Amino acid sequence: MRSFRSELDSTHYTAVDEHWAGGLPAQYGVAPRVRIGKSKWFNLLWLIPIGLVLLVIGIAVAKGIRELPAVQDFIQQYPGESELPENAPVGFPAWLGWQHFLNAFLMIFIIRSGVTIIADHPRLYWSRHSTPGKDWLRMQKPVPSDPLYTSKQDSITLPDGVGLPGRRHSIGLARWWHLGVDTLWLLNGIVFYVLIFVTGQWMRLVPMSWDVIPHSISVAIQYLSLDWPTENGWVNYNGLQLIAYFITVFIAAPAALITGLGMSPALSTKFRTISSVFSIQVARSLHFLVLAWFVMFIIIHVTLVLTTGALRNLNHMYASRDDSSWVGFLIFAASMVVIIVGWVAATPFTYRHPRVVQKVGYALIGPAQRLFEHIDSKPGQYAEKDISPYFWHNGKFPESEEYKKLQAGTFTDYKLQIGGLVDNPVELDLEQLRALSHHEQITQHFCIQGWSGVAKWGGVSMQTILDIAKPKPEAKWVIFYSFAVGSDGGIYYDAQPIEQMSYKLTMLAYDMNDETLSFGHGAPLRLRNEVQLGFKLVKWIKGIEFVEDFSEVGGGLGGYDNDHEFFGYRQSI
Ligand SMILES: Nc1nc2c(c(=O)[nH]1)N[C@H]1C(S)=C(S)[C@@H](COP(=O)(O)O)O[C@H]1N2
Ligand SMILES: [Mo]
User: Fold this and answer.
1) Which residue, by CA, sits nearest to atom 16 of ligand 1?
2) Considering only CA atoms, which residue is closest to atom 19 of ligand 1?
3) Whose CB has fewer CB within 10 Å in the chain, the N or C terminal residue?
4) What is the mean pLDDT of residues 289-306?
5) Could you list the residue ranges that cross the membrane (predicted)?
6) Residue 151 shares a structural domain with residue 188
7) What integer is the mean pLDDT of 276-305?
8) Residue 239 located in a structural domain
9) Closest atom of ligand 1 relative to the 150 alpha carbon
10) 536 with 496: CB under 8 angstroms?
């Protein structure tokens, strides 16, 4: 068998500079806009003046009605705080201060890397089809009419201080930050849940009587009329605070986890009943709305903490004391120094040490990714009616003479080469491949960048190929080589664990939606492995090699995007 290894780029990339990822130039999107009706778009920046006008009107109304005797009686009856149970704890223990700090610190990285992930496909949908023009929110121009427009072309740049990192298409690194820090944030959250229930602190976070509603209305009138309620957060929160904290701790945080997992291709394929309604795109849209809640919460929370007796409030959370000394402020200021240093350093550090980010991220989230990979779903989740009207293209199209020649001859001279650690190395042309037992499946594709689509794939099950080639027991990985080069030269390839080659949904497709696979989608042959993200599904396959390990192949990290763009080789989430 001809070796394809010499056609790989074996450079070991260790930094992100202007040449990285093929020197993809910066491209800024547009201000976020939401679709209204069929094709009208509302620029969300308008919410700033509209919000200010509404605030002024709200203040005028609240000031007006507060004069009314009935409203005064109402406020007297519902001053703002529901009564706490007798045994509710008073004050804040030190562990709460630590957890509050850790939570804030970790969320900085989660939010910033999350925004970078959205920027890689700056559109949100309510259906899994990701059809251009059907997005409900976009931060990018409408999709151009070019039929081969790729989702990589669609990605946008963020300022380095906003995104983590900010560079265009740095999603591989953003995901290590996002998923890696998530595990720490969840751990902190679990400790928090346990401790609040053990110590009774939960009573201060859970509304226990419906009178929280009139109390909240009363507090809203008091805030808006600029005659603010007297705060005594050391003992009890007012109704609005209580509701905001309750939503944040008991709804938004768990929703962040659930909607995050809802985007996993492996889980989505496994839990078909749930994912038929709660699709990957619904999960992604809700995940974004959870982010919007957190950002809004942080802004209002910090504003109110600093404007309703800052010193005392800071003492509560940062020094576990209830007075107006400067101790809490000093600890808060020190914690802000840590947060700001972390904020400023994160993106430059990532560009300088991307391999460290990749390694630490994998150490943190890798176990969960490995776990979900063991999901072997059967075909049959989707039906013909679910097939997407539009299926995005992605990647770098083949341009080599070798490929062009084959393409000009409608691939009659094409031969798939299968070799490496097998008892029976073979070459199969398309006629032979089509003569093998036919496998068909309707499945959902999920690109790491964020779009998804359902298609019907026709071809040969990888199990059939294993039966023919007979891999030796030492073969642990299967390398798929492409005719196309990747973004910085060297052919595109990917390593897949051999175990997954026997999965029911792993196949080589030569047909898509009952037609011969098109050029853009990988003609003449492409891989499908439905527990993995799209980038691992090599298109324009020319060869398959069975190996013991992939450290000698290309950059040695298990795939083109792992070598070049710091992706991971297990991408079930
Ligand atoms: N040879 C090759 N295969 C590739 C890519 C590529 O750049 N080169 N891109 C991958 C990515 S990122 C995705 S999402 C899918 C896209 O497949 P599609 O264009 O059929 O949607 O192909 C994958 N296979
Ligand atoms: Mo992708």
Assistant:
1) 394
2) 393
3) N
4) 96
5) 41-62, 101-119, 176-198, 242-267, 288-306, 326-346
6) yes
7) 96
8) yes
9) 19
10) yes
Q: Which atom of ligand 1 is nearest to the CA of 392?
A: 21
> CA dist 529 to 461, 466, 538, Å?
10, 15, 10
pTM: 0.96
Portion of the chain with pLDDT greater than 70, in percent? 100
Atom number in ligand 1 closest to CA 522: 20
Pocket mutation for ligand 1, best pick of 485, 535, 571 (most atoms within 8 Å of C-beta): 535
Ordered DSSP codes for 185-221: HHHHHHHHHHHHHHHSGGGGTS--STTHHHHHHHHHH
Residue where one domain finishes, among candidates 348, 372, 396: 372
Looking at the fold, whether 235 and 290 belong to one and the same domain comes out as yes
| pLDDT bracket for residue 266 (50, 70, 90) | confident
Instruction: Tell me, in angstroms, the distance from the centre of ligand 2 to residue 395's CA.
Output: 7
Domain count, the chain: 2
My answer on whether 255 and 130 are in the same domain is yes
Q: Is 289 among the domain residues?
A: yes
CA 293 – ligand 1 centroid, Å: 34
* Same-domain check for residues 342 and 390: no
Measured in Å, residue 476 CA sits from the centre of ligand 2 at 25
Residue nearest to atom 8 of ligand 1 (CA): 395
Q: How many CB atoms lie within 10 A of CB 217?
A: 17
Angle between helix 212-224 and 69-77 (nearest 10): 130
Compute the distance between CA of residue 154 and CA of residue 87 in angstroms, rounded to an integer. 57
- Domain hosting residue 476, numbered range: 5-15+376-565
pLDDT of residue 2: 64
Closest residue by Cα to atom 1, ligand 1, is 539
pLDDT per position as a tens digit, 448-491:
999 999 999 999 999 999 999 999 999 999 999 999 999 999 99
d(CA 508, CA 523): 11
Using the 3D structure, point to which of 372, 391, 422 is the last residue of a domain.
372
278 and 170, same domain (yes or no): yes
340/385 same-domain check: no
Q: Is residue 573 part of a domain?
A: no
Conformational region of residue 410, where left means phi above 0, alpha means psi within -120 to 50, and beta covers everything else? left
Question: 495 CA distance to ligand 1 centroid (A)?
Answer: 14
Cα of 154 vs centre of ligand 2, distance in Å, is 12
135 and 247 together in one domain = yes
Are 301 and 390 members of one domain?
Answer: no
- Closest by CA to 290, choosing from 262, 319, 259, is 259
Write 403-407 long-range contacts (CB < 8 A, 24+): 403/483, 403/484, 403/540, 406/483, 406/524, 407/519, 407/523
**Which of ligand 1's atoms lies nearest the C-alpha of 520?**
19
Whether 7 and 551 have beta carbons less than 8 Å apart is answered as: no
In a domain, 310, yes or no: yes
**Pocket residues for ligand 1 (CB within 6 Å)?**
391-396, 447, 482, 484, 492, 520-522, 534-535, 537-540
Give the pLDDT confidence of 407-431 residue by residue, as tens digits. Answer: 999 999 999 999 999 999 999 999 9
For residue 43, what are its two tokens?
Answer: 């620029």
Q: Is residue 274 pLDDT above 60, yes or no?
A: yes
Give the residue whose CA is nearest to atom 12 of ligand 1.
Answer: 535
Kindly tell me if the per-residue pLDDT of 267 is higher than 80. yes
Which protein residue has the closest C-alpha to ligand 1 atom 10?
535
* Ligand having the closest approach to the CA of 394: 1
Ligand 1 centre distance from Cα of residue 401 (Å): 20
